[in-house]
Design a protein that fits this description.
Among the domains are: 63 residues; 114 residues, Beta Barrel (Butyryl-CoA Dehydrogenase, subunit A, domain 2), CATH 2.40.110.20; 131 residues, no CATH class. Helices cover 49% and strands 14% of the residues. The protein has 15 helices and eleven strands. The protein is α+β, with helices and mostly antiparallel strands and 483 residues long. The protein has a five-stranded mixed barrel with strand order 4-5-9-7-6. It has a two-stranded antiparallel sheet with strand order 1-2. It binds flavin-adenine dinucleotide (FAD).
Length: 483
């Protein structure tokens, strides 16, 4: 068959026949003839290819509508290998070869497994099953299997445990946060329950282990024992001003435990196994509570009772949020929730403070991690995207943009590292607390974005960006060509 005959068969025979059958509304026959036409068309196209291998056959059918060009997408590869600055930092502080190897393996797992799980969580947000098929109120939060797998993965990898096992002495937190730094941008927000879990363990530790069993669950590497914790503070009146906002009342029981009655307005990762929460202890006749921060005490409550029933917790609804949709955030009515008093009476806010410190550190590290991931993907894209006849990485202005992104991202990482670096000391030489440590780091780091502003980049920004690009050039093969 000649080229002309093949074209004729496709254009003049198969397609018009299929279209006519469609018009006649004989759907069964139309479909049958369409498939014949399509397979006939395919056969003809194959014949065309044989006759003229270089012909642009894609323009004949559906491809003509969307074109034949598909941009190669940026790929996530091992974030540890792709982060020379992180590796250099570790070589200085945690030089053991074993550390680098373990983190490299972890980075591989993030790229090959965790990233897909995080994506699944984004596509499958949690739902609330309020009643069972027989009409009983159950208030079960249904999460996707990927979210549950992330919980198992976190336990196996000791993402919370690392901070308490002290395998790397005073640098254990740094090691843990290096893992978190790689994990966070892929993890579908599972870092939120991990932050609260870590914070709860820290509170228990700082209070002298009033609930050893719970601590063991929170810091377990065994996925069947590992618990996550919530942090139920915010109530209807607000979240910042907890001293005025806390209306939940704790009633003392004869066995020394308490029952909580109140409404928690914003509880994230509500599929947790336990929570730390605040309430005001009522006096003996149950009618009076102490106002202000001096009336607020800290409690631990398990979400489910031993028999699998709810611990007096009604899920009013799941929040319909703008972001963080992968994770359940709920409004909860506490109606006689069994709880254990953790703090001294009236020392609730002071006692939960270390949980807030831990969660803030997670926020800082996760923010820096997100910036790092964006930069990593942009760099990969610059090696794949061609414009004006050359790859983006070969355009000096684009390289400068990437360098600026890197320098800003490093500034934020610097704040995070300042928070967790155990060797940080104040000007007087004494060890600094977490918040105090972050101040000099933040001052140094924030100089950069604040001076660069939105307009023309200032000299310091250019110098840092240039220095950073030199580091890139010397440490990353992808950019060697630019020199
Ligand atoms: C996605 C998401 C998840 C959350 N998860 C939880 C959770 O798990 N557990 C929980 O307990 N809460 C949770 N919250 C609630 C959160 O902690 C509160 O929203 C937060 O504490 C702020 O409280 P607010 O919303 O009442 O704002 P407000 O207290 O009304 O604050 C409004 C604004 O005023 C500023 N402001 C407040 N006080 C001061 C001050 N003294 N000086 C200067 N500025 C001030 C604040 O920074 C803010 O910009 C969550 C919120 C969100 C959005």
């Amino acid at each position: 068959m000649s080229k002309e005959e093949a074209l004729f068969e496709i254009r003049e025979v198969h397609l018009p026949m299929a279209v006519r059958l469609c018009y006649r509304s004989n759907r069964g026959l139309a479909l049958h003839m369409l498939s014949r036409g399509v397979s006939g068309g395919r056969a003809s196209v194959e014949r065309l290819r044989e006759l003229e291998p270089h012909s642009q056959t894609h323009s004949l059918f559906s491809r003509s509508a969307i074109g034949s060009f598909f941009q190669e997408q940026p790929q996530l590869t091992n974030p540890f290998i792709q982060d020379p600055l992180l590796r250099t930092y570790l070589q200085r502080h945690l030089p053991a070869q074993e550390v680098q190897e373990k983190l490299c393996c972890f980075g591989e797992a993030v790229a090959s497994e965790v990233d897909a799980l995080g994506r699944e969580c984004e596509l499958n947000p949690p739902t609330l099953e309020r009643f069972d098929p027989w009409g009983r109120r159950v208030d079960r939060i249904i999460t996707h299997s990927a979210w549950q797998r992330l919980k198992c993965f976190s336990a196996q990898q000791g993402l919370v445990a690392e901070g308490y096992e002290a395998n790397h002495g005073v640098w254990s937190r740094v090691y843990q946060m290096c893992k978190m730094y790689m994990f966070a941008p892929s993890a579908g927000l599972f870092t939120c329950p991990l932050a609260m879990t870590d914070g709860a363990a820290k509170v228990l530790q700082s209070l002298g282990m009033p609930a050893r069993g719970a601590f063991d669950h929170l810091t377990s590497r065994d996925e069947s024992k590992f618990w996550t914790s919530g942090q139920w503070m915010t109530e209807r009146r607000g979240g910042s001003d907890v001293a005025r906002g806390t209306e939940t009342v704790a009633r003392r029981q004869e066995d020394g435990s308490f029952r909580l009655y109140g409404f928690k307005w914003f509880t994230s990762a509500t599929d947790a196994d336990m929570t730390l929460t605040l309430a005001r202890i009522a006096d003996e006749d149950g009618s009076t509570v102490t106002p202000g921060s001096r009336g607020v005490s800290l409690f631990l409550a398990e979400v489910w009772l031993g028999d699998g029933s709810s611990n007096g917790i009604e899920v009013q609804r799941l929040k319909n949020k703008l972001g963080t949709r992968q994770m359940p955030t709920a409004e909860l009515l506490l109606d006689g929730t069994k709880a254990t008093l953790l703090s001294e009476e009236g020392r609730g806010i002071a006692s939960i403070a270390s949980m807030l410190t831990i969660t803030r550190i997670y926020n800082t590290v996760c923010a820096a991690a997100a910036m790092r991931r964006i930069t990593q993907l942009c760099r990969d894209y610059a090696c794949k995207r061609s414009v004006f006849g050359k790859l983006l990485k070969d355009h000096p202005l684009h390289t400068l943009t990437l360098s600026r992104m890197e320098s800003r991202e490093e500034a934020v990482s610097c704040v995070g590292r300042g928070c967790i670096n155990p060797s940080s000391t104040s000007s007087s030489g004494r060890k600094m607390g977490n918040e105090e440590r972050s101040v000099p780091a933040a001052q140094a780091a924030l100089t950069l974005p604040s001076q660069s502003g939105d307009g023309e980049p200032c000299l310091i920004c250019l110098v840092v960006a240039f220095t950073r690009s030199q580091q890139l050039l010397s440490t990353d093969e992808q950019f060697l060509e630019i020199t």
